[in-house]
Amino acid sequence: MTCDAPSLSRVFIDIGPFTIYWYGVIIATGVFLGLWLATRESNRLGLNKDLFVDLIVFAIPVAIISARIYYVVFEWENYQGGPWWDVFAIWEGGIAIHGALIGSVMTAIIYARVRKLSFWQLADIAAPSIILGQAIGRWGNFMNQEAHGGPVSQEAYNNFLQYLPDFITNQMCIGGVMYHPTFLYESVWNIVGLILLLVLRRYNPRRGEVFLSYMIWYSIGRYFIEGMRTDSLYIIGNLRTAQVISIVLIIFGIGLIIYRRYTGLANKKYNGKKV
Q1: Per-domain residue ranges for the chain?
Q2: Mind listing the pLDDT tens digit of every residue in the chain (275 residues)?
Q3: Which positions ≥6 away from 169 have C-beta within 8 Å?
């Protein structure tokens, strides 16, 4: 479907020679709201109020580095033959959420061991914060006009997209063509997931199952939404990396819940009482 509409500026504010972009502001907002949510829950459980502040100091830089490494590995052909420093040019774009999650989880495991805490307890508290941050962060992709789907058909526009606010459809008008706002689809999916995780937490599930439920829910949505995107990383041929990883995480998450219940590793409750 063709279109002709003005797009929103990527720039939040210019301060002298410095430019602050909406992408950074939105990502920072997601991080701070996620931190607030995790800190609020850890305080309620009687844990150290600075527990997640300390964790995030280590987790954020590791997540950024691992997200970049993940992206470069699967896009290595684009970096061969070019200047070696291009692999560090993160300001030009090129990070992957699965890479960030891997780095964050590894950091949390080490952090829990050093602080002599339960990793699963930390993960359960953090799960709603992570999916909230992802829901907000996708709007950064919206401002950058990236991570979108393929062209919109006239039928799809008439059936659904015409009911979206103009600022969304206008921003998805790129080069005279309207594209599917997959950022919006994933953001809505994650908000629904946030609500479900908060409800699940109220029923005091076995420890670890809030985080594993997050992993399963997010992966299901990501699998289907990834199939619509035009900027996917590919592992082999036409196999989209994010879809393969999503299938692995769904199977792993379900299997681990069953295994931990069967072996008694998940006998501890989320917090030992109704919320």
Answers
A1: 11-263
A2: 889 888 999 999 999 888 999 999 999 999 999 999 999 999 999 998 899 999 999 999 999 999 999 888 887 777 777 776 677 777 666 788 999 999 999 999 999 999 999 999 999 999 999 999 999 999 999 999 999 999 999 999 999 999 999 999 999 999 999 999 999 999 999 999 999 999 999 999 999 999 999 999 999 999 999 999 998 989 888 899 999 999 999 999 999 999 999 998 888 888 755 44
A3: 3, 5, 161, 162, 178, 181
Q: Write the DSSP string, the chain.
A: -B---PPPPSEEEEETTEEEEHHHHHHHHHHHHHHHHHHHHHHHTT--TTHHHHHHHHHHHHHHHHHHHHHHHHTGGGTTTS-GGGGG-GGG----HHHHHHHHHHHHHHHHHHHT--HHHHHHHHHHHHHHHHHHHHHHHHHHT-S-BSBPPHHHHHHTGGGS-HHHHHHTEETTEEB--HHHHHHHHHHHHHHHHHHHHHT--BTTHHHHHHHHHHHHHHHHHHTTBSS--EEETTEEHHHHHHHHHHHHHHHHHHHHHHHTTT-SBSSSS--
The reported pTM is 0.92
C-alpha distances out from residue 239 to 57, 68, 169, Å: 35, 20, 29
Retrieve residue 172's tokens.
């998805």
Alpha carbon of residue 19 to chain centroid? 25
